[in-house]
Amino acid sequence: MDPTLLSLLETIPQKPPRSKLETHRELIRQRRRKGCTYRDIVRILHERVGLDVAVSTIHSFVKVRAKHRKQVQYELPPPESESKSISPSTDDVASRIAALRAKPIQQKSKPKHFHFEESEPLKLISQGGSR
């Protein structure tokens, strides 16, 4: 990156957290992991920290952070050593594709439930397969 851009990025002050719960994030996470309900967390924050919040606020706070954590997990690329050992060679893939194409296609006929002749009414075929 351009050095002038880097120096500009370093001079911009970091924004304070938008949520008043951000400073208590780890407390909330630990309480949830130990099975506390959102109501319990609201009570703890009120009694110990003096912070009044609604149960829905805690729920939204936890939910947003859980979504963010899942996105981060899925965006991480696999380590290079694993990706090289897992990926099959192109010769192997080509030979498997050729084998699948050479395999004859077997079409399964659906069992008939009715017998139709133009001059007669539609007839139900019994399960034994006879008319």
Write a brief caption for the model:
The protein is mostly helical. The chain has helices at 3-11, 25-33, 38-49, 55-75, 80-86, 90-102; strands spanning 114-115, 123-124.
Say how many strands there are. 2
Uncertain ranges: none
Order of helix and strand elements from N to C terminus: HHHHHHEE
Structural class: mainly alpha
* Largest sheet, spatial ordering of strands: 1-2
Task: Summarize the structure in words.
- The protein has 131 residues and is mainly alpha-helical.
- The chain has a domain at 19-75.
- 54% of the residues lie in helices and 3% in strands.
- The protein is built from 6 helices and 2 strands; from the N terminus they run ααααααββ.
- Strands 1-2 form a two-stranded antiparallel ribbon.
- α3 (38-49) crosses α4 (55-75).
- The longest helix has 21 residues, at 55-75.
- It starts with a helix and ends in a 7-residue tail after the last strand.
Question: What features would you highlight for this structure?
Answer:
2 strands, 3% strand, mainly alpha, 6 helices, 54% helix, 131 residues
Layout of SSEs?
Elements: H1 3-11, H2 25-33, H3 38-49, H4 55-75, H5 80-86, H6 90-102, E1 114-115, E2 123-124
Antiparallel strand pairs: 1-2
Helix pairs in contact: 3-4
